[in-house]
Design goal:
The protein is α+β, with helices and mostly antiparallel strands. It contains 3 helices and 10 strands. The chain has 2 domains: 35 residues; 134 residues, Glucose Permease (Domain IIA) (Distorted Sandwich), CATH 2.70.70.
């Protein structure tokens, strides 16, 4: 028991009576414990933010991050997350789609639900590509996704997919110069400008 403001130490009854030397222990106040916990939490938040920046800059994305559904709730969705790409060129001068430039490995989503007609590691100049046949607003719509990364196709020919379903990753295969998604849209057999079609229909 402490006497005259002396320090005291309470121990369990099972403890031995071995001598206790002042240099072999330390005390921590509740304020010091709270400060330490706050520092650890700050470190964890900083690490999570750094990981998110790396992923956004083209770092490796985990499969858990990729197998998500594209934002939106309509029959038509954007094939890449909005804000993750820029359009370098679109239909014209023999080019039949829109080149949506995004970091290699970025997730690609089905722009519309339907049946996969093509899922190939080598589809003409498109390289790794997928073609999905859909019916949107009573019209036959075919969407093509080209230059994907080898081995990332998540759907097979004959499979039914939902709007916004993850189908693969952006790559640089086939006749391609730099990582991007070549995205084509045909409505009732006729080629249409893909970005305008997305803007008019995606929800």
């Amino acid at each position: 028991m402490a006497a005259d403001d002396a320090q005291s130490l309470v121990v369990a009854s099972e403890a031995t009576t071995a001598p206790l030397d002042r240099g072999t222990y330390s005390a921590t106040t509740p304020d010091e414990i709270a400060k330490k916990k706050a520092e650890e939490a700050a470190k964890q938040r900083a690490a999570a933010a750094a990981a998110a920046r790396t992923a956004g800059a083209g770092g490796r994305l985990s499969d858990a991050d990729l197998r998500l559904v594209a934002a939106g709730s309509g029959e038509v969705r954007y094939p890449l997350a909005q804000g993750s790409y820029y359009v370098s060129r679109t239909v014209g001068s023999g080019h039949n789609g829109a080149d949506m430039v995004a970091p290699a490995g970025s997730p690609i989503f089905a722009a519309a639900g339907g049946v996969v007609r093509v899922s190939s590691e080598s589809y003409f100049g498109y390289g790794v590509a997928i073609v999905i046949d859909s019916v949107v607003g009573g019209q036959r719509v075919s969407t093509l996704y080209g230059h994907m990364t080898n081995g990332t196709r998540a759907v097979s020919a004959g499979q039914t997919v939902q709007p916004g379903q993850f189908i693969g990753k952006v790559g640089n295969t086939g006749r391609s110069y730099g990582a991007h998604l070549h995205f084509e849209v045909h409505v009732n057999g006729s080629l249409v400008e893909p970005i305008s079609w997305l803007r008019a229909n995606a929800g």
